[in-house]
Design a protein that fits this description.
With about 425 residues, this protein is α/β, with parallel strands linked by helices. The chain is about 40% helix and about 15% strand. It binds S-adenosylmethionine. The site of S-adenosylmethionine (SAM) has 22 residues, from loops.
């Protein structure tokens, strides 16, 4: 790692960028990639020769897929989170705008005369603890929205409206605003909380149709495929052949979901509402979710940090190692899909555990180098608009927090 270059370049912070252009406006998600980062990477770091296929092994809300569409390049994404897959699919689909507007107005006409006796599905048992999280009146309104989507929308456009409903389902629950984890509001806030369920749905629908219009105008018909395979365990050859990918563009998790970003908790509202499998245990299925008791990788780049964490707290050390075991296996599998000369861009965070900074960019480059790649450069960018929680609990003790991420590292490597 002697000639490893970290380049601090303010241009990559995209301080004033509009991150909600196109279908990027559809739905929030934890730790979203800035679209401008993906766009600039495709433009400035695309591999020599052809660029026909981009792969995102942790696609989240599908930022890479949307940007691949805008660049006219086919893409494949995978994520274990069903809500992420719904987002990835919907955000990269060229729906017929006129048809959506027509269907939306049919829904709106019925909403005007709402009466809760119209609601057919009144069974909410699939939602854990639903009376703790919702008022009965709002549950019925949400159910009515779903009923109207089913009545008025064609099979092709249903998902477009269900993704809107997904955001509303979360926003009208008693979850604290701005939190990824499931924390309930204080009683005083609940007493004042009176969300306009139908208004939220209608405004989001208008917003998303505007985003779709921009997307339909500027993206051509590149193909997008969304899957649910776990790259830690292998990449199905019938989906992506070895040595076939021109560019990998992704932002992986930077630790297990329990101690870093809780994708499963954030998504549980929608995943339960839609009855998706494994909604309650998703975080334990994600990278690092299962504890292991041996180091299954060889590292020099973060050896000192790992030893220090172990000295301070053995349990935290094994948490970190469990994540890195999965992460390094995933990298070996991802590396095998890339063609010679192909480029890999990993946008990673620098995480602190027991106040020890773990340079995940070093580790990422080291693992790719062990799998036939050369490190080109690591771009360092500031995170100006807090898409990441700026604080997490480093010790998992409630209330004990520390600033974790103000920089991101874009690790760029090329296959030899
Ligand atoms: C940082 S987020 C990706 C954000 C994405 N770039 C965006 O712009 O929204 C990481 C994603 O990795 C997913 N993930 C975690 N472990 C995974 C695994 N083993 N296989 C596939 N996806 C996984 C999580 O569900 C999460 O959506």
């Amino acid at each position: 790692m002697a000639d490893y270059i970290r380049l601090v370049d303010d241009r990559w912070s995209f301080r004033d960028a509009d991150t909600k252009q196109y279908t990027h406006c559809y739905h929030t998600y934890p730790a979203m990639m800035i679209p401008q980062v993906a766009r600039a990477l495709i433009e400035e770091y695309k591999p020599e020769g052809k660029l026909n296929l981009i792969f995102d092994p942790y696609m989240g809300s599908g930022t890479t897929l949307v940007e691949a569409c805008l660049a006219g390049v086919d893409s494949v994404g995978t994520d274990l989170n069903p809500l992420a897959r719904l987002m990835g699919k919907v955000k990269s689909t060229h729906y017929d705008e006129q048809k959506l507007k027509y269907e939306l107005s049919a829904i709106q006409s019925d909403l005007i005369f709402y009466n809760d006796s119209f609601v057919k599905d009144r069974n909410f048992e699939r939602i854990s603890n639903y009376t703790f999280w919702y008022t009965e009146a709002n549950l019925l309104k949400l159910s009515y929205l779903q009923q109207l989507i089913n009545e008025h929308c064609s099979e092709q456009s249903k998902d477009f409206f269900l993704l809107i409903l997904s955001e509303v389902v979360r926003e009208v629950s008693f979850t604290r605003n701005g939190e990824f984890k499931r924390y309930r509001m204080k009683e005083e806030s609940i007493a004042r909380f009176n969300p306009d369920v139908f208004g939220l749905f209608e405004r989001k629908a208008q917003r998303n149709i505007t985003g779709l219009q921009q997307f339909n105008r500027d993206a051509n018909g590149a193909s997008v495929s969304v899957y649910d395979f776990n790259s830690t365990y292998g990449i199905p050859a019938e989906i992506i052949q070895a040595d076939s990918v021109d560019m990998v563009l992704t932002s992986p998790p930077y630790g297990d979901s329990h101690t870093t970003v809780a994708y499963g908790q954030f998504s549980r509202w929608a995943n339960e509402w839609f009855g998706y499998k494994d909604a309650a245990i998703l975080d334990s299925l994600l990278m690092g979710g299962k504890r292991t008791k041996d180091e299954q990788f060889v590292t020099n780049s973060i050896r000192r940090e790992l030893d220090e964490i172990r000295r301070l707290d053995e349990k935290r050390y094994w948490e970190v190692v469990s994540f890195l075991n999965d992460y390094s296996k995933s990298i070996a599998n991802v590396a095998g899909t890339v063609r010679r000369g192909g480029v890999v861009c990993y946008v990673v965070g620098d995480r602190r555990v027991k106040n020890v900074q773990i340079p995940l960019d070093f580790f990422t480059a080291e693992m790719f180098m062990a799998n036939g790649f050369a490190h080109q450069v690591t771009l360092v960018r500031e995170i100006p608009n807090k898409r990441m929680p700026s604080k997490t609990s480093p010790s998992n003790v409630a209330g004990e927090q520390v600033a974790t991420m103000s920089h991101e590292f874009i690790v760029i490597m090329r296959k030899l």
